[in-house]
Amino acid sequence: MIIFMSKVICVTNRNLCRDDFSERIETIASAGVEAIVLREKDLVEKDYEILAGQVLDICKKHKVQCILHSFVRVAKKLETNAIHLPMNRLRELSVEDFQTFEVIGASCHSVEEAIEAERLGCSYIVAGHVFETDCKKGLEPRGLDFLKQVCERVNIPVYGIGGVSPERYGMVKAAGATGACVMSALMECDEPKEYLKQFGE
To answer: Which of 84, 92, 161, 175 is the right S-S partner for 105, CB 3.0 to 4.6 Å?
Structure first.
């Protein structure tokens, strides 16, 4: 069962940070988010484990749900209860691993993937990318209609990702999403707490 219903989930990318990454995570964790996905996909497993340990400690201090990304063995070793996976990794997850985690998320890029993710046992889905974003330069956004279709076809929380700003957040919610994932803006903005306030209640 999902244990957070946050309106905004932070997805990390330390390469976008202009300041110290740990300090940035500390600031975001204290700013009101309920969940942080540690996405750092460019790291090898050993380095990811070291970073994950640091981020988990920060999140525990601020009572924020930390969701590790892709590295299942690291998540099990660090005894964390949450993992987020791309669909190819989700399909490979063993029954034992499914039982290990309380929270399992998946990145979905089609309605069919969303339906499959729910059937496999996911707690929530991240669907995108919804709007144009520098993180997906040159790739056509899937749009709000796509997000709406995903939300209509599954019975678990859906979070829109990709170019979701405070100004666009209302449209994401109107499409049926529980909330949104934000990466670039939270990594780069001067005042994460003030930025998060712009999303409203």
So the answer is: 84
